[in-house]
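Dataset card, provenance and construction

Sequences and ligand SMILES were collected as paired inputs. For each pair, a complete structure of the chain with the small molecule in place was predicted and serialized as structure tokens. The example below shows a pair involving 2-oxoglutaric acid. Curators did not alter the output after generation; any descriptive sentences attached to a record were derived from the structure itself.
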Amino acid sequence: MTNSINTVTSQTLSSDVLESYRSRGYVRIPSVLSVDEVAQCLADAQEQLERHEKLSWDTPGEGNVMDWIAEPEAKSAVMRRLALHPGITGIAERLAGRPLRMFKSELLRKRTTGGTRTPLHIDAPAFPIAGSASTLTAWVALVDVPVERGCLTFIPGSHELPQREDAWFIDPFDAHPELRWWPQVTVPLRAGDCTFHDARLVHSAGANETETARISLATVYMDAAATYNPAPAGAEPTYQDEVPGIEPGQPFDTDRYPLIGATG
Ligand SMILES: O=C(O)CCC(=O)C(=O)O
């Protein structure tokens, strides 16, 4: 089965979409995966979630935000193809306007019960990355994700606010109180749709209030020339600070961080 003829590709991405991504910090692209690709990726994702150790993000007193599998692309060929999917990575490079490489991929699951919302946050301060003018996440839905299944919500334009060093550890509303009054956009996705968001954009997601697990793959891409920048000694590290095999200040130039799209 094929996608509809209106499917957006890196070649057909319009200047309006590019402009919208740059000014709002996110964009929704429908049907980046065909129906067959969704079925194959979902089956593989469910198997991984069944078989492999999961990490868990919990909010004390509220419940489980999500479970996830780190490096799913190293665990199956299907997930590697999805993390490096030419349609998705081609669009990522157009949006970024520069060559990119993959930083990481995570297979996410929001449970059907006992779950809670994903708190407002920005991603960039959690990434040990320097020299990346454009770091962005492709969040690909592998099941339908309507509002009540916990789709993502973005605060358009918030990626242009000044970034604080401690931003990973504080509520974005405390960092920028005026943000409380900015519009938030909630973006439901059909299975096979994708959003791209800038790593500096404030975002959150709802709880899953349905009987179906919310399953998605979130892959982060960074400038091809970005360098490893761990938390300085004495600073509180984020959970993503460990980058084996690369010295601080060096590019992420190993097979673990492949070049993508046109450059890969
Ligand atoms: O999936 C979610 O609920 C949050 C994902 C997220 O924050 C991200 O991919 O940056």
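Derived descriptions for this record:
The helical segments are 15-24, 35-51, 77-83, 86-96, 172-175.
Residues 146 and 188 are 5 Å apart (CA to CA).
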